[in-house]
Write a structure and sequence with these properties.
By secondary structure, the protein is of the alpha+beta class. It has a single domain (7-147), classed as Aspartate Aminotransferase, domain 1 (Alpha-Beta Complex). It is built from five helices and five strands. A five-stranded antiparallel β-sheet has the order 1-2-3-4-5. A hairpin with a 2-residue loop joins strand 1 and strand 2.
């Protein structure tokens, strides 16, 4: 079976229970996504990114990804790249999970979850909504400048 190359193909290839979960989180992101981001199938997942036409100066020559949404073997993942190397947003996210009485299962920027009940959905929507492309670019440039 060929690998999916579009969001529709990706969703169609998911088992029904996972499709329902991924679709619900996708809808949440789309409802809260600030203007200036685009939704694309990239990196083997549904990605929300700043298009290269708007900002090209990335280390890997790929669009800056705010967030990504994927199905994995034993869980779903929400890649909140916007919290990576952003201690303020990370602390806010950790507080949101704690206040909701939920356990945060997270790597550097990847939140792993099995059900919608594992996520503080309102807080995830707020997090997506609060990072404008301008803010994200400024943060990215500040990190890049600090590394040179």
């Amino acid at each position: 079976m060929p690998k999916p190359t579009t969001i529709d193909e990706y969703l169609a290839a998911l088992p029904p229970d996972r499709r329902e979960i991924i679709s619900a989180v996708r809808d949440l992101i789309l409802r809260n996504l600030p203007e200036g981001y685009i939704e694309r199938f990239s990196w083997g997942m549904i990605a929300y990114q700043i298009p290269l036409e708007r900002y090209r100066d990335t280390y890997n020559h790929q669009p800056l990804m705010l967030a990504g949404l994927a199905n994995n073997k034993g869980y779903c993942s929400l890649h909140l790249v916007c919290v990576y190397m952003n201690s303020e947003l990370l602390a806010w996210l950790q507080d949101a999970f704690r206040e909701a009485g939920l356990k945060l299962n997270m790597g550097k920027a990847c939140v792993r979850f099995k059900t919608l009940a594992d996520l503080p959905l309102e807080a995830i929507g707020q997090l997506i909504a609060r990072v404008t492309p301008e803010q994200y670019i400024a943060h990215y440039e500040a990190i890049k400048a600090a590394r040179t």
